[in-house]
Amino acid sequence: MSWEFLLMSFVVVLLPGTGVIYTLAVGLIRRPGVLQWIRRAFAGAFGFLGARLATSE
């Protein structure tokens, strides 16, 4: 692979990623209800993984 291909691939991946981060920061995180929902989702996922680890062989 050439360095041009690698550079363009990096740009294609980087630009939408920064847009997503900006959208989350501006539109969603500032709303208290959404932030609380995100915390609950992470807590539920963490609890599920802990239970799964405890029941694994």
Helix content: over 70%
Gyration radius, in Å: 18 Å
Mean pLDDT across the residues is 83
Order of helices and strands: HH
Beta-strand proportion:
under 5%
What does the model show?
- With 57 residues, the protein is mainly α.
- It has a domain at 28-57.
- The chain has helices spanning 3-28, 32-55.
Give descriptors for this structure.
flat; 2 helices; mainly alpha; 57 residues
Task: Produce a short descriptive summary.
The chain is an all-alpha fold and 57 residues long. It has a domain at 28-57.
Topology, pairings included?
Layout: H1 3-28, H2 32-55
